[in-house]
Write a structure and sequence with these properties.
mainly beta, Tachylectin-2, Chain A, five-stranded mixed β-sheet, four-stranded antiparallel β-sheet, globular, binds beta-D-galactopyranose
Length: 432
């Protein structure tokens, strides 16, 4: 039977954070006997979701992979307080047969204590996504990284991590690989994408704009969002892109997508988050082919999550307001590297009646207090897709919740509505 036992659940959660910080392993049993083991048979969006040990599922900004008959969820393991938004533990993995019940598979990619590691404890490591490469037989994880900065940047000590703030100028993407889906993943490297490479869709226009900028002002590169911020038109035409051309493009909120033909793509918020870049991945899924596009230029899309239905590609994104929720966005295209078009907010209806006390409402204009992170294609059901978003609690990161909602259709366009409770039989009805 399900009971709302949030207080005991969170004390177990806190206990498990400290055991993990002490170097323990996520699937150890300590503390479990104080929690309730629940067998779920439905989705309860934004309620505490417990794993097979009775601990809250700790995998934020998650990605999902279906592999050998099981679903896997990979996400940021967060700890309490605002420091919880820094990666102190690593990427947590869970598995599930039915999408309701999640088994703790441990930390797939642990943060490092090596002072020279690019994923030293305390780095910002967000939105990890995993795909499987059938040619190399490797599981490949991509993630967004913001490095640490300051005199303690190479210290794994919590007191030092607490004393600093991340270097948000990093904007890099990292890649890790594993032989087994649950890991351990080996961190390979991080980089700024496409240094010295023009995108396939805008190359000539960008070259012409660069000439124009050079002729107008030799210091045009001296700009960012806070200093000498270019006009909206200059952002759309690529001033931030050209600024970063030699060193590589900024890479923030990200996702991966594998198409039916086996080609994989990486998309990220780039150019100070103003423009989304979609890159075709190389055959091993660990790098790029060099074919990529700038899309939705100057419109500040974050939190990308793709899916495909009937030959059309769909993309959930958010606006750009940090941890605060905002109206979701849905965009469409006939091909991954085509010209994407935004169709507005896909959220409909009244929203959540009994939401937790937040300064925002759990209504369509806040994407029901969530920010997109993934779309799960449900196996064995035709045209069944689940929107997954994060309900961030930035001041106490560990308490962030997951919003799973069924994707419905309105005149051929995906929409989402709030349900306090729902199950997969939803997709057998005529609502979908
Ligand atoms: C959000 C982003 C999150 C995180 C946050 C930090 O916009 O989607 O992944 O980076 O900003 O403020």
């Amino acid at each position: 039977m399900k009971k709302n036992k949030n207080s005991s659940i969170l004390s177990v959660a806190v206990f498990s954070v400290f055991s993990l910080l002490g170097g323990g392993c996520a699937s150890q049993d300590s503390g479990v006997n104080t929690a309730e083991i629940i067998k779920y048979s439905d989705f309860n969006p934004a309620q505490v979701l417990l794993d097979n040990n009775g601990r809250h599922v700790n995998a934020h900004g998650a990605g999902f992979l279906y592999d050998n008959g099981k679903y896997y969820m990979f996400g940021e393991h967060k700890v309490g307080g605002t420091v919880g938004n820094r990666a102190l533990v690593g990427v947590h993995c869970y598995s599930s047969d039915d999408l309701y019940n999640w088994k703790d598979e441990g930390i797939a990619l642990p943060m490092s204590d090596d002072p020279d590691s690019e994923i030293i404890r305390g780095t910002v490591l967000e939105r990890p996504k995993v795909i499987y490469n059938p040619k190399t037989k490797k599981y490949v994880m991509w993630m967004h990284l913001e490095f640490r900065k300051g005199k303690f940047a190479k210290s794994p000590k919590l007191e030092h991590i607490l004393s600093e703030s991340p270097d948000y100028r990093t904007a890099r993407v990292g890649v890790a690989v594993a032989d087994k889906v649950t890991g351990p993943y080996k961190f390979i490297c991080s980089f700024r994408p496409q240094a010295g490479v023009y995108p396939v869709n805008d190359a000539e226009k960008l070259k012409a704009f660069r000439k124009e900028l050079d002729a107008k002002n030799p210091n045009w590169r001296d700009c960012d969002l806070n200093k000498n911020c270019p006009s909206k038109e200059a952002v759309v035409r690529g001033q931030f892109f050209l600024r970063d051309f030699e060193g590589g493009q900024m890479a923030r909120d990200m996702t991966l997508f594998v198409d039916d033909d086996g080609k994989a793509y990486y998309a990220c918020a780039s150019e100070e988050n103003a423009t989304l870049h979609i890159h075709e991945l190389s055959d091993d899924f660990q790098g790029f082919t060099g074919r990529y596009v700038r899309v939705l230029r100057g419109d500040y899309h974050e939190a990308p999550a793709f899916f495909k239905k009937d030959g059309k590609y769909w993309l959930f994104t958010s606006h750009c307001t940090g941890w605060a929720p905002n109206p979701g966005r849905i965009s469409v295209c006939d091909s991954m590297l085509g010209e994407w078009k935004e169709l507005g907010n896909p959220c409909r209806g009244e929203g959540q009646k009994k939401s937790r006390t937040r300064p925002y409402s759990a209504k369509p204009d806040t994407t029901f207090l969530s920010q997109s992170t993934a779309v799960i294609p449900v196996q064995g059901k035709k045209d069944a897709f689940i929107y997954v978003g994060d309900r961030w609690i930035s001041e106490d990161a560990i308490d962030g919740r997951y919003v799973f909602l069924p994707i419905e259709w309105e005149n051929g366009t995906p929409i989402i509505k709030w349900y306090d409770k729902w199950d997969l039989s939803f997709f057998d009805s005529d609502k979908k």
